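Input/output pair, single chain:
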Amino acid sequence: MSDRAEEMPPQVAVLDAESAFPARALGARGDETDEVLELARGGLRQDTFLRSFRHNVLGMVGLGILVAIVLFSFVGPLLYHSDQLHANISLTNLGPGKGRPLGTDANGFDILGRLMVGGQVSVEVGLAVAVMATTFGALWGGLSGFTGGVLDAVLMRIVDVFISVPAIFVLIFLATAFRPSLVVIMLALAFLAWLTPARLVRGETLSLRTREFVDAARIVGRPRRGIVVRHILPNTFGTIAVNATFQMADAIINLAALSFLGFGPPPPVVTWGGMLSQGTTYLLDGYWWEVYPVLLLLTITVLSINFLGDALAETLDARLRSK
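Output:
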């Protein structure tokens, strides 16, 4: 927001980044004017957000664990070297010991090094799916909610049709219909994941499109696309950010599930689900190190992302902060 707009008297509410209108001209007084100001500034201020987030214990724990997992996956291989491309039959199913802290698997691969490489795949797929699904879903929901009418009904019926189909069946079908690869799996996961953010953003848009700052944008002649992109979507950032974290967690779980069922990317790509699938074969033989470490790491990763999402939801919710 420009300095000129910030210097205006209290009775004037800034409704657009380029222009200011008297709040009373649009019927906003008192608390409504403050709400308009907050919305026009894009919701939370950065200092308020950081201060609130730091006081959320679970959020900080989740963020710390997630950062540790990212460092483990991407920095770990630079410090702990292991061959994850060539099998070594002479080292199959060896327990934890010197030089191999978590033992080896049925192909002689070092499990600690395999966890690091599998973590890279999980983080990359989770981030890619979250970005693609959230971006497309937000644009779809924003357009649907702001336009309304017949277009809104058609767009949301399309969403309802896809939501009614069990996701795991669609993923297995796509994995069998196309040659499985990381790109295909990411696109398949994003294809199903965009439905939830589309419905959430559409609901937020239905509420926001009647607000004063949107009326002001209409008055100055903003096109519909500009209003959605510059005014509606920025004010749904809280919903979008929170949902993106859950989309990332869901993508990691779905990737593990597909790989566990045998529909994941083929070797030499390493996934945590593939490690679980292979490890469970030898679990009854006492080779616990092939199952429990990867299961624990997968669980902790998903929990940390969920903690982070819950913390963002609480921090970005202005009504919750005011209580």
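The chain has 16 helices and two strands. The first strand starts at residue 12 and ends at 13.
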